[in-house]
Amino acid sequence: MNILITAGPTREFIDPVRFISNPATGRLGYLIARKAKKKGHNVFFVVGPCHLPPLKGVKTIEVVSAVEMKREVEKLFPSMDVLVMTAAVSDWRPAKKSSKKIKIKKRWTLKLVPNPDILKFVSGKKRKNQLVIGFALESTSILKNAREKLRKKKLDIIIANTVKNFGTSQNTGKIFMLYSDGKMINLSGYSKEKISTLLIKEIEKWKEKVMC
Ligand code: CTP
């Protein structure tokens, strides 16, 4: 299969030396990409700025901003069987990037504009034989909010996560895998390694089903 995986944060620059971002490590996406490659799939990895070693045999495209990530995902998506969107895309960017370093000032307001929702955009163009997997990061009402994202973004699978698991190497909070047909698997306590193995298995099961 052709599998596209996104990972890491995006950076939205305010001026040449400052940006808005988040502490995503990119590790889960990285593990999924590595596992998929090991299983013989054709893997494409679109990654925001993070400190991950190179993945041998994986076509890796490094991006910085959400707009850049969208451009690359949009280009690749039509020829993919599967998209796994683990990236922590910044929901906003500064309305204007200053070309010069902004000078010190006492109090000022930074105007933000919304970034495109990459997942929603591409899954709106999904063909019948494509599988789209997203993630949901929630502080409260994890299942309710994740189900809503699954529906609104027209996903096949969503992995619902609490903010407790964000930016860390250990998963200590709740995690659930929710399917569009209502099926749910509780992954709470699973390591990122174990989640990536399970996810690849689920992707392979789906492929077998669509080929029948
Ligand atoms: N996502 C995306 N583009 C965005 C924001 C999010 O593609 N601009 C994707 C993420 O990669 C993830 C899913 O959408 O797979 C859900 O992301 P999440 O941060 O949980 O939710 P948001 O859609 O940003 O909504 P909110 O911040 O209101 O919870």
Chart the SSEs and their pairings:
Blueprint: E1 2-7, E2 12-15, E3 18-20, H1 27-38, E4 42-47, E5 59-62, H2 66-76, E6 82-85, E7 92-94, E8 112-114, H3 118-123, E9 131-138, H4 142-152, E10 157-162, E11 175-179, E12 184-186, H5 192-211
Parallel strand pairs: 1-4, 1-6, 4-5, 6-9, 9-10
Antiparallel strand pairs: 2-3, 7-8, 10-11, 11-12
Helix pairs in contact: 1-5
The structure holds cytidine-5'-triphosphate.
Report on this structure.
This protein is an alpha/beta fold and 212 residues long. The protein has a single domain, classed as 3-Layer(aba) Sandwich (Rossmann fold). Helix content is 28%, strand content 26%. It has 5 helices and 12 strands. The protein has helices at residues 27-38, 66-76, 118-123, 142-152, 192-211, and strands spanning 2-7, 12-15, 18-20, 42-47, 59-62, 82-85, 92-94, 112-114, 131-138, 157-162, 175-179, 184-186. Strands 5-4-1-6-9-10-11-12 form an 8-stranded mixed β-sheet, sandwiched between helices. Helix 1 (27-38) packs across helix 5. The longest helix has 20 residues, at 192-211. The protein is globular. The chain starts with a strand and ends with a helix. The structure holds cytidine-5'-triphosphate. Cytidine-5'-triphosphate is lined by residues 66, 85, 87, 89, 91, 115, 117-119, 134-137, 149.
Summarize the structure.
By secondary structure, this protein is an alpha/beta fold. It has helices at 27-38, 66-76, 118-123, 142-152, 192-211; strands at residues 2-7, 12-15, 18-20, 42-47, 59-62, 82-85, 92-94, 112-114, 131-138, 157-162, 175-179, 184-186. It is globular.
